[in-house]
Each structure stands twice: as structure tokens, then as C-alpha cells.
């Protein structure tokens, strides 16, 4: 089996495209670029490729990954070039290589790093912002309410998210914006969305706008944070 | 230009933000300094619907192929987006460059469906452009309109600056050329309209005055000046192989209604169903050659990467070389796992074989449109389909493994009786029987028959244009009756909103006095009238009351042959005497043969030679 592991970025307007729509976008780009993708059997043949994780609507990223099964070998450099020639602005292949890894991408991802841009509220101060973040990091447990739809009913439960936050730092403070960098648990064994982190920070007293923010994923990591 | 930053503030608050971002594969990007004329192709419904429309793709590419012209797209924002836009004062903008519509030279609406008319008004309102053409000033864009509903342009007469009647490929370029000359000479709005009024297929409603009789019917329509044409002749492309063709299409980011390559195999229809407007206005039939189609299909797949090709026409089975076309398309694209779909196919055994070949029995549903329940009524409407045809096709289909069937009917057709309604039930039940008549071991799947009955709307330029539509009460009574008699777990019965069809009838055959109603209804809050959950019938009733216009006059009144009809000034090539003859034949239950069998002298060959006839 020829498996190509591909890293790509998603930026600008493409952040408004859902995960499902991104899959369709790639499917069509493969055909435009003449990539010999393997297809599933059956009445409704689908190209065989899968993503590491879904990126939520509204987020940009420099580190998205997918595995593609090919029918015949093509040079990874050619794959990258041919794809970038046909992809719309906002999706770009960064790198590709063949892998023997039998495991799915989805199962090996453990964490993601994000850059979060927040807008401080007018009456906030640098001091209080730093204090809130530091207090937050010192906590052993942080509970937030997660709601889940089950059989039409919404079920709410309290979950501790502290253990899913590995790193959280202010890397820039300006009177009109704050930039945080964070490393959060990601994957099938546990997952923390950056939106939920923001919600928790605000609940703990961080004085920032609760709707106007930007989230950018930097990269995904396996247990061994270096890729490969 | 609207800043992306401003849009970013609202895009995550709406459902499917990708409807409003543009930036898709195969759009045109032009440099500011290369643009002389800005044209906004406006579709008065949401992105998902509009992007499925072939005409948009044709005109978009045709116009952008011209130097100096930049054609961009705009759709009606869904209500969640409109709410956000109004909240922070964002005017309606084009997708390509996010330019407010007010800054365009032309806004061209395509009229596919009467119930989207209020969306046109909403789009103008969201652009801060006056709703009535008489209130627009020199700096405003020209509001133009075309498409099938433009064959009766009068309901939009107060709103649209000018109409393009017929297939727009050539006419639109003539207009653009004139506009370029106009800009150089700095003509006024009025002078520009004067300069194009004699181009074939152009209708400027403000150049005409309509006089009415005491009984409210039209006495005559008078051109305000001698040189304004008193007849407007439709324009068609005579040879499709030589006409501008589409070799690339924009690839939407989100799933649209028809998310695939559309291959237009021919225009027109030879069948002559008496209720069908398309069948009359698009005459004569003009086909593209197999060679040409294969070439286009290759280019379209190459440029889009789509996984499916759909053959588009009014009646796919009538393409003269269908088998050859299908086989060659399949040969070409099988490797790449590209599917073919053949909508508007008559489901006889030949077609079923083709579909089976294509799908290898992927059990998608089958659709039949007998339209009427009895043979008598099918003869009245000239639907050349017999019960035997239908039952045999179903039998074959069931044998091949299908188990989902859709049956389409209309209620309220001229001369309809109780027996005809019962016929709908009987047909559905016979189809059911046919399924269970198969030997047990060849029975596959779970039978599901969906029977839909829409409400007949008499349309301009059809043999039924003189007929009254059923009243709302009659429609409802018939719907109730059918609901009562169709009682079977395997048969699902669907009806259409009678109120919507009633309004459709008003606008399909309205004169220019209904423009006012439209504006009032819009001001009362009507929009997306074709969407069941958005339709506000009460606001329409209020609008009729406020304007003193009686909708029944347009929907439910029988017209005499001598009456001047609001669309009489348009020449579609098919003569009025032919339509009268067809209407009379229908009353006698006489069928008229398919044009392929023999010519019935509709008149089209006199001025529009070039098709099959
Ligand atoms: S001229 Fe005759 S063959 Fe041609 S469209 Fe009219 S009726 Fe049909």
C-alpha cells in the first residue's frame, strides 16, 4: 500500500469552510491535478484519504495533516507542485512523504498548539490579565459545563479541563490585543477545543471580548512531539 | 469595497458562511485598471440554488471572456445573513470583489421562478437602490432581467429598467458594446435606453403606455415614440455547436442543489405538452453534436474535478443519438470514477437499460411524471404517456431491483373531474400491485411510492394560457379528497401549497398593475416566498387589499381569444393561432403528435429556422 502523508495549511477565507466541504474540495483537486488516488470499491467509489483531525469552522492552521492512498507511486515533490497548481487560494500543501505507518493519523495525534488572539475589554489592565492567567495555570482543577445532544435532549455535564492544558503563555500584550500560545490535548483519547479554553478563561475572570477572537493552529503533535 | 475585517465580524454568526466568501476555483479576477464595465449577475435566491443554474455559468464566463467587462456574482443572502448585514449596515455586495451593488453599471437578474420576485426587491433594498425604475438617478446601475419568466415581463415593469427576451448570449454583448460607446459620449440614462431599444430582444417597459378597458382588461399597449418596436421578438442561438460554450465552471465550496458538471445537450422540446411553457418558448429544438459534447465534457471535468456529469435538457430521451453519447461518455470517464446522471429521462425499457448500465443498479429512486391520473386527461394535456407505458416501466424497474418510485401529478388541469383524481390513486395502487406481483424471490428492497400532486398554474404562451386556475377552495377540496382516498402504508402522498400556486398564477399572467402589489408585499415583509417556512400569505392578502388589485382577476378568470393579453407584444415564433388550435384540440381530447413524427405548424419555422424542424 502506497501511503502519502501530507502536511498542509489552511488560511484566509478557507477558514469559513467546514470539514466536510474541505474533504470535497480535496477530492476535486485530486482529479484536477491528476493524482492517481486509490478508490473504495462499491456503488459509490470514494477516494481513499483521511485527515488527522477536523479543524473547526473559523480556524486557520499551519499544521494540518492527511494520509492519501495511491494507486501508483508519484514523486512527493510532484504531488506537492501539481496540487498547489490547482488548489484555491487558502489551501496549500507544505510537504509530503511516503510512510509505512500502519496506524491512522487520527489515532496517533495527541496534542495541538494554537495561537489565540484576544481583545481586552476597555476597563482591563495588563496587571489583571497577567494575574488571571497565572492564577488559572496554578489551579489543579478547572470545571466547565459541556452540553451534549442526546436523543433530542441536551445533557449538560461538568468536566475538568485542567489536565488537558499542557501549556499556556501570554506571548504578547498590547492595549488592544493579547496573544496567547497554548498546547492542548487533541485526539481520540481526549480533546480540548481552544474555544472552550477561552470560555473557561473568561469564566475565571479574564477580561476579554467573548465573541471577537482569532484562533490559529500551529501544529499537531504525536507523543513524540517531533513529526516522523 | 467592503473590508474583509468587517465581514469577519459576522460570518461566523451565520449558517454556511461559505455562501458569502467567493474565492472559489475558476472565478475571474480582474485588475481594476482593466475594468471598464462592471456587471453583477444577480440570482434572486440563495447561493446553493443559484450556483446550480446553468445560465449563470454561461453568462458569467461569456461576459468575463470580454476585455474590459468584469462580471461578478451576487445571491440573495439567507435571512440570518441579512439580519447581520442590516445590523451593522453592510450593503449587498458582489462575491468576487465585495463591491456594493450600487457601484455596478448593470445588475442582471435571472427570472427562474415567479416566487423569487420579492427577493429581487429585497436585494435592491439591501443595496440602497430605488425599487422603482422611475426613482433611480443617473448614477444608479441599470436593473435588467432575463430568463424564462421574462417572457411575461409586465409584473416587473415598474421595477426593471429593461428586459432581455430570449437566449441572452448575443444580446448581452450587443448591450455591452453600446454601453461602452455611451460611456465615451457621456449619455444620460434615457439616452442609453433609446440607443438600445431597437436591438432585437430588448424591452424597455417605461417606453410604453398601457390603456385599459372598463372591465379592467387591456385595450392596447402604445409605444411612446414611433421608433419603439411594437413587437419584441425573442432571440435564440441558431446553432449550438457554434454558440458560445461553457468549458469551465465555478466549483462551489459548499454542496449546492446540483453539485456537478452540467452538459447542455440540446435546447427546446418536441413533445408539445399543453401546460408546459418551456416547451413553447424554447422552440425549435437545437442539438449539440456528440463530438462537441464529448470535447466539452472533457474540458469541464479537467477544469472542475467534479465527480459527476449531468446531461441537461427538457427531455433527455429525445436526444437523437443518446445511446452513442452515453456509451462514449462512460468509456471516457469510467477510469476516473466519474458518474453520469440523466435527469428528465422518459423511463421506457431502453432508458432503464441505459440507467442500469450507468448505475449498475445503485438503487436511487426512479421518477415518472404522468401528470394526470386518467388517459382522458393525459390526452387533454397532450402528455404522450399511457398507463401501459408506466406499468411496464415499473415492472421492468422492479425486476432490475428498484424499489423507490416517485410519481408526479398536477391537480386543477382543465376539464379535470372526480374520476381523474381517482385515477391518481388508481395509478399509484397499480404500481404498488405490480411490485407485489413479482415472484417472491426477485422482490428486492422495501417498496416506497411517493406521489406528489402540485397545483396547476396556467402560464403565458401555452395553449392553456386562457384557462382559469382552480380557486383555493377547489384546490383544497381536491387535496383533502386525495388524502382521504390514498390510504396505503407503501404510498406517501404529498401536496403543494395552494396559496403559493395561486400567487404564481397571478404573476405568471399578471399585467403591469401587479408591480405595485409586489412592492407592497415586500414592504409588508414578504421574501423567499418559494420557501415554505418563509412564506407569509397574509402579507400578500394585505398587499392586494392595500393596492386595490384583485388577484382572482389574474388567477381565476377565463379569458376570451379576443382579449389582449399582457404578453401579446412578445413574439416567441410560435403563433397565437397555433396555441388556440391546441387549446381547442385539448377540449376535444385530441392529441398532437411529437414534432419528430410530424409537424403541426406551430409557426416557429418561419422566422427561427435552424433547429430540427
Ligand atoms: S414547426 Fe412543426 S416540427 Fe417545428 S416545432 Fe413547430 S410544430 Fe414542431
TrEMBL record, chain A:
Matching InterPro entries = DUF2344
- An example Pfam family from this entry, by short name, is DUF2344
* Residue stretches making up the DUF2344 domain: 3-194
User: What name does UniProt use for this protein?
Assistant: DUF2344 domain-containing protein
Automatic annotation (TrEMBL), chain B:
Give the domain of life: Bacteria
Which PROSITE patterns does this one have?
RADICAL_SAM
Q: Domain Radical SAM core spans what residues?
A: 255-492
Q: Which CDD domains match?
A: Radical_SAM
What GO molecular function annotations does the UniProt record carry, in alphabetical order? catalytic activity; iron-sulfur cluster binding
Write down the SMART domains for this protein, in alphabetical order: Elp3
NCBIfam families in alphabetical order:
rSAM_fuse_unch (TIGR03960)
Q: Could you tell me which PANTHER family the record lists for this protein?
A: RADICAL SAM DOMAIN PROTEIN, SLL1084 PROTEIN
- Can you say what this protein is called? TIGR03960 family B12-binding radical SAM protein
- What organism does this protein naturally occur in? Senegalia massiliensis
Amino acid at each position: 500500500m502506497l501511503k502519502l502523508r501530507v502536511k498542509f495549511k489552511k488560511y484566509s477565507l478557507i477558514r469559513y469552510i467546514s470539514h466536510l466541504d474541505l474533504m470535497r474540495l480535496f477530492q476535486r483537486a485530486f482529479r484536477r491535478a491528476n493524482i492517481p488516488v486509490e478508490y473504495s470499491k462499491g456503488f459509490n467509489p470514494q477516494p481513499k484519504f483521511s485527515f488527522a483531525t477536523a479543524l473547526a469552522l473559523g480556524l486557520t492552521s499551519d499544521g494540518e495533516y492527511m494520509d492519501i492512498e495511491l494507486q501508483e507511486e508519484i514523486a512527493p515533490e510532484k504531488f506537492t507542485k501539481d496540487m498547489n497548481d490547482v488548489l484555491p487560494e487558502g489551501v496549500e500543501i507544505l510537504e509530503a512523504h511516503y510512510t509505512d505507518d500502519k496506524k491512522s493519523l487520527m489515532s496517533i495525534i495527541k496534542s495541538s498548539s494554537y495561537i489565540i488572539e484576544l481583545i481586552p475589554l476597555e476597563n482591563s489592565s495588563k496587571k489583571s490579565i497577567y494575574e488571571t492567567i497565572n492564577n488559572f495555570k496554578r489551579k489543579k482543577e478547572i470545571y466547565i459545563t459541556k452540553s451534549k445532544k442526546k436523543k433530542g435532549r441536551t445533557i449538560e455535564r461538568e468536566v475538568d479541563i485542567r489536565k488537558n492544558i499542557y501549556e499556556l503563555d501570554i506571548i504578547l500584550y498590547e492595549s488592544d490585543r493579547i496573544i496567547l500560545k497554548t498546547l492542548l490535548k487533541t485526539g481520540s483519547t481526549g480533546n480540548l477545543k481552544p474555544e472552550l479554553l477561552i470560555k473557561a478563561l473568561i469564566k475565571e475572570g479574564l477580561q476579554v471580548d467573548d465573541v471577537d477572537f482569532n484562533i490559529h493552529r500551529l501544529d499537531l503533535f504525536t507523543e513524540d512531539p517531533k513529526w516522523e | 469595497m467592503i473590508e474583509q475585517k468587517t465581514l469577519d465580524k459576522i460570518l461566523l454568526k451565520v449558517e454556511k458562511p461559505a455562501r458569502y466568501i467567493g474565492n472559489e476555483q475558476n472565478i475571474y479576477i480582474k485588475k481594476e485598471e482593466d475594468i471598464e464595465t462592471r456587471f453583477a449577475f444577480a440570482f434572486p435566491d440563495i447561493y446553493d440554488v443559484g450556483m446550480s443554474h446553468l445560465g449563470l455559468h454561461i453568462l458569467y464566463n461569456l461576459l468575463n471572456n470580454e476585455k474590459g467587462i468584469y462580471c461578478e456574482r451576487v445571491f440573495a443572502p439567507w435571512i440570518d445573513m441579512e439580519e447581520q448585514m442590516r445590523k451593522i449596515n453592510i450593503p449587498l455586495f458582489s462575491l468576487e470583489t465585495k463591491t456594493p451593488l450600487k457601484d455596478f453599471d448593470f445588475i442582471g437578474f435571472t427570472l427562474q421562478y415567479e416566487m423569487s420576485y420579492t427577493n429581487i426587491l429585497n436585494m435592491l433594498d439591501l443595496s440602497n437602490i430605488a425599487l422603482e425604475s422611475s426613482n433611480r438617478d443617473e448614477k444608479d446601475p441599470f436593473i435588467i432581467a432575463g430568463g424564462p419568466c421574462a417572457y411575461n415581463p409586465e409584473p416587473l415593469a415598474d421595477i426593471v429598467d429593461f428586459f432581455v427576451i430570449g437566449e441572452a448570449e448575443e444580446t448581452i454583448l450587443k448591450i455591452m458594446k453600446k454601453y461602452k460607446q455611451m460611456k465615451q459620449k457621456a449619455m444620460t440614462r434615457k439616452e442609453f435606453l433609446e440607443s438600445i431599444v431597437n436591438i432585437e430582444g430588448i424591452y424597455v417597459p417605461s417606453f410604453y403606455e398601457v390603456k385599459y378597458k372598463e372591465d379592467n382588461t387591456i385595450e392596447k399597449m402604445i409605444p411612446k415614440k414611433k421608433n419603439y418596436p411594437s413587437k419584441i421578438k425573442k432571440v435564440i442561438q441558431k446553432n449550438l455547436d457554434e454558440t458560445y460554450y461553457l468549458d469551465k465552471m465555478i466549483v462551489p465550496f459548499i454542496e449546492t442543489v446540483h453539485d456537478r458538471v452540467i452538459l447542455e445537450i440540446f435546447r427546446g422540446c418536441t413533445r408539445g405538452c399543453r401546460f408546459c411553457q418551456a416547451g413553447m418558448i424554447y422552440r425549435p429544438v437545437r442539438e449539440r453534436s456528440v463530438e462537441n459534447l464529448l470535447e466539452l465534457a472533457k474540458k469541464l471535468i479537467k477544469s472542475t474535478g467534479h465527480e459527476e456529469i449531468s446531461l441537461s435538457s427538457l427531455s433527455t430521451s429525445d436526444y437523437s443519438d443518446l445511446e452513442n453519447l452515453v456509451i462514449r461518455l462512460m468509456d471516457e470517464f469510467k477510469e476516473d470514477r466519474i458518474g453520469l446522471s440523466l435527469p428528465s429521462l422518459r423511463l421506457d425499457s431502453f432508458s432503464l437499460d441505459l440507467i442500469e448500465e450507468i448505475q449498475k443498479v445503485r438503487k436511487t429512486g426512479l421518477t415518472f411524471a404522468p401528470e394526470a391520473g386518467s388517459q382522458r386527461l393525459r390526452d387533454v394535456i397532450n402528455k404522450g404517456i399511457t398507463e401501459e407505458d408506466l406499468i411496464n416501466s415499473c415492472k421492468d424497474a422492479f425486476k432490475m431491483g428498484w424499489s423507490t418510485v416517485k410519481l408526479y401529478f398536477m391537480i386543477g388541469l382543465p376539464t379535470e373531474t372526480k374520476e381523474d383524481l381517482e385515477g391518481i390513486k388508481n395509478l399509484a395502487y397499480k404500481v404498488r400491485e405490480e411490485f407485489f406481483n413479482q415472484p417472491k424471490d426477485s422482490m428486492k428492497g422495501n417498496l416506497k411510492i411517493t406521489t406528489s400532486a402540485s397545483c396547476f398554474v396556467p402560464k403565458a404562451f401555452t395553449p392553456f394560457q386562457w384557462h382559469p386556475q382552480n380557486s383555493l377552495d377547489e384546490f383544497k377540496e381536491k387535496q383533502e379528497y386525495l388524502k382521504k382516498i390514498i390510504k396505503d402504508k407503501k404510498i406517501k402522498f404529498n401536496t403543494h401549497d395552494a396559496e403559493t400556486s395561486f400567487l404564481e398564477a397571478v404573476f405568471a399572467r399578471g399585467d403591469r398593475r401587479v408591480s405595485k402589489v409586489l412592492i407592497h408585499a415586500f414592504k409588508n415583509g414578504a421574501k423567499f416566498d418559494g420557501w415554505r417556512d418563509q412564506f407569509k400569505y397574509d402579507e400578500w392578502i394585505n398587499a392586494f387589499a392595500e393596492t386595490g388589485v384583485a388577484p382572482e382577476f389574474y388567477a381565476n378568470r377565463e379569458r376570451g381569444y379576443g382579449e389582449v393579453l399582457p404578453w401579446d407584444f412578445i413574439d416567441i415564433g410560435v403563433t397565437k393561432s397555433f396555441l388556440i388550435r391546441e387549446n381547442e384540440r385539448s377540449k376535444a381530447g385530441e392529441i398532437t403528435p411529437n414534432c419528430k413524427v410530424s409537424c403541426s405548424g406551430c409557426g416557429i419555422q418561419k422566422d427561427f429556422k435552424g433547429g430540427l424542424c
